[in-house]
Amino acid sequence: MLTARIAVVASGGGTNLHALIDAQGRGELKSGSIALVIADKAGIGAIQRSEKAGIPCAVIVRREPAFEEKVLAALMEYQIDLVVLAGFLGILSGDLLRRFGKPVINIHPALIPSFCGKGFYGLRVHQAALDYGVKVTGATVHYASEIVDGGQIIAQKAVDVLPGDTPEILQRRVMEQAEWVLLPQAAETVSAQIVKEKENAL
Ligand code: GAR
Questions:
Q1: What is the pLDDT of residue 3?
Q2: Which tens digits make up the pLDDT trace of 40-79?
Q3: Which member of 18, 108, 126, 142 is catalytic?
Q4: Would the pTM of this model clear 0.90, i.e. be above it?
Q5: Would you list the DSSP string of 131-152?
Q6: Looking at the DSSP assignment, which residues form a beta bridge with residue 155?
């Protein structure tokens, strides 16, 4: 059966990568298969998670020269059809997105257009939501575009903010109730579209 070859790019703990691997194991992510993990620094949790799952992992350090060239080379080498940014804390340039020319999707831990854009990543997003005093936040999966967090929205899920929340507590709730559900579902939806296009091209 044809599948979309997925590369997952991560910068940290890799819990969203884990959710994707689990979804693949359960057969919920079935139109796509994770063919490569790209970790953007050494020693991060995503590396161990990919090793445990038997998925090739390339460590390409974001702060070193030619990061994007190396990423593009890895995507070509592994014949990747879809890139999933799963806790990637950097920004991919419009130039890279154009040269890759295939879908790149991203998970953001807020309801875009709130608390997004340059400087809003990781715990900072949840801190900003708490500072503002919103009662509902959530997560968004969207296509990556030249505008940071500005690409077309694929899916969103709302999560309550509760009294006494810290950024850490809120982050965990958003992950459990939204991110780990939404990202595998969106990866499946986009993979299924890619498979359809591949079949039509045969
Ligand atoms: C996740 O909450 C993800 O949404 C966020 O970083 C965390 C990474 O966790 N991403 C961003 O803030 C991107 N702007 P993980 O490494 O455990 O998946």
A1: 97
A2: 999 999 999 999 999 999 999 999 999 999 999 999 999 9
A3: 108
A4: yes
A5: HHT-SEEEEEEEE--SSTT-SP
A6: 141
**C-alpha–C-alpha distance, residues 70 and 90, integer Å:** 15
32 C-beta closer than 6 A to ligand 1: no
The minimum-distance atom of ligand 1 relative to the CA of 107 is 4
Instruction: Name the β-bridge partners of 137.
Output: 159
Residue 98: strand, helix, or coil: helix
Amino acid type, 202: L
For atom 8 of ligand 1, the residue with the nearest CA is 87
Confidence at residue 1, expressed as pLDDT on a 0 to 100 scale: 82
Query: What are the beta bridge partners of residue 153?
Result: 142
**Which residues, in sequence order, are CB contacts of 187 under 8 Å at separation 6+?**
6, 20, 23, 29, 32, 82, 84, 105
126 labelled catalytic: no
